[in-house]
Amino acid sequence: xxxxxxxxxxxxxQRLKFFGFSFLRQAAGSHEIWLNKATGRYTTIPNHTGDxxxxxxxxxxxxxxxxxxxxxxxKSNQ
Length: 78
Fold this sequence. Notes:
Blueprint: H1 9-18, E1 21-26, E2 31-36, E3 41-46, H2 54-64, H3 68-73
């Protein structure tokens, strides 16, 4: 298993909120657009059950401008 495995939609959203992202709008199907007003960056997150595929999570972090290490080291209860 890779370092980005085992993250659910809820885990990802909690961590994105820590980095300043907030829900902007619903997109096509079960996808959501999240925006960081401070940086002007946005990302699209699929709201699916189960663990997020590692490639999808990596693409989300790239769009958001968040380093993988920062995302992993962020404790969800902080």
